[in-house]
Amino acid sequence: MNAARLPALRALLDEHALDAILISRSANKRYFSGFRLSDADGPTSGFAGTLLVTRDANVILADTRYTEQAANEAPGWEVVATAGPMQDELPPLLLRHEVAALGMEAGVVTHADWAALAEAAPGVELHAIDDELVPLRMLKTAEEVEAIGRACAMTDACFTHLIEFVQVGMTEREVAFELERFFRVNGAEGLAFEPIVLAGARAAMPHGRPSEAVIDAGNVLLIDFGCSVDGYRSDMTRTAFVGDAPDGIRRYHDAVREAQRAAIDAIAVGVNGQELDALARRRIESDGVEPYGHGLGHGIGLETHEPPRLRRSESFTLEAGMVFSIEPGIYLPGVTGIRIEDIVALEESGPRVLTTSPREALVIGS
Ligand code: ZN
Ligand code: ZN
């Protein structure tokens, strides 16, 4: 655990006139304490575990199912065993630590929990603290970049396997199942997200779900997938051709690939994310097609989608330490979808692409 994380969190107490911060987002629990809860254990499924950080105490409130795990994973944290909901367990602790102003993650605490705590601890002011936490995780340390790199390397290995595995006649779901199996047997913690495996015209749905649809000769096959290694995520998309694809569709693949290359080549410290998005869009528009409706990319780390967001509507300056995706695409409903996505770590010297699977139009399944 990086020793700088907790002091950076505590610095927010003075900056925002708070006496304590309650950490409820799973990725933040792991980031600040090492305590690993999945989203399924999160605030909406009861009170499995929450962090309370004051100026001089850091406490994990953990359901008795998790106290041993918390003690092992989060050395240096006081573990308080809880039996009831937050509105019962938290007020005595807030009293003991003389908390009059508490920061909470309004983005993840349910409205019901927030209201119940407000009622149970009427003397404590509750303040939303969400945007203020974002910068803490946005710039990655070398160790974090390395962990993301391990997840990306496993994703590359998985893609190499899939190129051999996919055959005409398989369903999208068979491919999705196989990629998950590959990640699990090779030691990944799990999937970074539900994989997207779409054949033919179904690839026009940017976030479609794998189905029983059969992969046919002449289809494109879009695979968007990633895994989690030591908590850190990968996210990569490749669009391959199953047998020969029509020239028209190949041309779209070229356009997306060149759009992505133009954006990656322009990445540097100090560049505005909007400029990258504009570069990629212009390249696709020059082929006479409507570019992607989604953003060009997103930050990645302990969560698959985290700040920064690279999109038209948002101006922000790229900094060394940011790790993010670059994923332009073309979607033609009823016809096809093409997306190419890679993960880039921005270093002082420039971008380093962490996913290295071939980006050219691969022919598979034969
Ligand atoms: Zn992505
Ligand atoms: Zn993706």
List each distinct ligand once.
zinc ion
Shape: elongated
Instruction: Report the CATH C-level class of the largest domain.
Output: Alpha Beta
The biggest sheet, with number of strands, parallel, antiparallel or mixed sense and barrel status, is: 6 strands, mixed
Helical residues, percent: 25-40%
What does this structure look like?
The structure is a single chain. The chain has helices spanning 5-15, 26-33, 67-73, 86-96, 111-120, 134-138, 142-165, 172-185, 247-265, 273-285; strands at residues 20-23, 49-54, 58-63, 78-82, 101-104, 125-128, 190-191, 196-199, 220-225, 227-229, 232-233, 236-242, 297-299, 306-310, 323-326, 329-332, 336-339, 342-347, 350-353, 363-364. It folds into 2 domains: 3-137, Creatinase/prolidase N-terminal domain (Creatine Amidinohydrolase, Chain A, domain 1, 3-Layer(aba) Sandwich); 142-364, Creatine Amidinohydrolase. The N and C termini lie far apart (47 Å). The chain is built from 10 helices and 20 strands. The mean pLDDT is 93. The strands form 6 sheets. A 6-stranded mixed beta sheet has the order 4-3-2-1-5-6. It has a 4-stranded mixed beta sheet with strand order 8-9-12-20, covered by helices on one side. α7 (142-165) crosses α8. The radius of gyration is 23 Å and the shape is elongated. The protein is α+β, with helices and mostly antiparallel strands and 366 residues long. The structure holds zinc ion (ZN) (2 copies). One zinc ion (ZN) binds at residues 224, 235, 237, 341.
